[in-house]
Design goal:
It contains 8 helices and 2 strands; from the N terminus they run H-H-H-H-H-H-E-E-H-H. Helix 3 (about 25-45) crosses helix 7 (about 115-135), helix 4 (about 50-65) crosses helix 5 and helix 5 (about 70-75) packs across helix 6 (about 80-90). By secondary structure, it is mainly α. The protein is elongated and about 60 Å long. The chain has helices spanning about 5-10, 20, 25-45, 50-65, 70-75, 80-90, 115-135, 140-160, and strands at about 95-100, 105-110. A two-stranded antiparallel ribbon has the order 1-2.
Length: about 160
C-alpha cells in the first residue's frame, strides 16, 4: 500500500475520504494514475516488457522508422533514456539500427519482424489490463473516458 492509499484507508478498512477530496479531478486523476501505472507495469513485466518498449514499438509500427530524436518526440521518452530503451530492444532483436544515409552520425531505427510479433502480443496484454482497469465502465463509457482524457491532454500539451 502506498502512503497516499494509507491516508485514505483507516484501520477498519472503510474509506473515509472527505467529499471535497473525492470531487477534485486532479486528485482522482493522480490516484488513478498511481493504480494504473502499477497495474500496467506489473502486467508488462509478466510479459517481459516495459511501457517504454511498447511506446517505441508502437511508434515504429504506426509512424515508420525514425532517428532516436524522432522516437523520443513521438513516444515522450527523454532522449537521455532512449539509448538504453533502444539497447534493450536491439538486444532482443525487436528493432534494427542502421546508419542514416543522409547523416552518418545518426542511426535510423526500424521495427523488426520479431518486434511486430512482440507488439501484437503486448497489444493483447494491454487490452486485458485495460479491461481490468476500466472494468466498472461499459464500452461506450470507456470510449468517452478516453476521448475526454485525450481532449484534456491535447489542450494542456498545446498550452505548455
Amino acid at each position: 500500500m502506498t502512503r497516499a492509499e494509507a491516508v485514505d484507508t483507516p484501520d477498519d478498512g472503510a474509506p473515509e475520504t472527505p467529499d471535497r477530496l473525492r470531487r477534485r479531478a486532479s486528485r482522482l486523476l493522480s490516484q488513478l494514475t498511481t493504480r494504473s501505472d502499477r497495474l500496467i507495469n506489473e502486467g508488462l513485466a509478466r510479459a517481459d516488457a516495459r511501457k517504454w518498449h511498447y511506446a517505441v514499438l508502437a511508434s515504429l509500427q504506426e509512424c515508420g522508422p525514425g532517428s532516436q530524436a524522432t522516437l523520443s518526440r513521438r513516444s515522450g521518452i527523454y532522449r537521455s533514456d532512449m539509448v538504453s530503451v533502444l539497447n534493450e530492444l536491439t538486444e532482443r532483436q525487436l528493432v534494427e539500427r542502421a546508419p542514416d544515409p543522409d547523416d552518418q552520425r545518426r542511426n535510423i531505427i526500424t521495427i523488426s519482424p520479431q518486434g511486430r510479433r512482440h507488439l501484437r502480443r503486448l497489444d493483447k496484454v494491454l487490452d486485458d489490463l485495460h479491461d481490468e482497469l476500466l472494468a466498472p465502465l461499459n464500452p461506450a463509457e470507456r470510449d468517452q473516458f478516453v476521448q475526454l482524457l485525450t481532449r484534456l491532454l491535447d489542450h494542456h500539451s498545446r498550452t505548455s
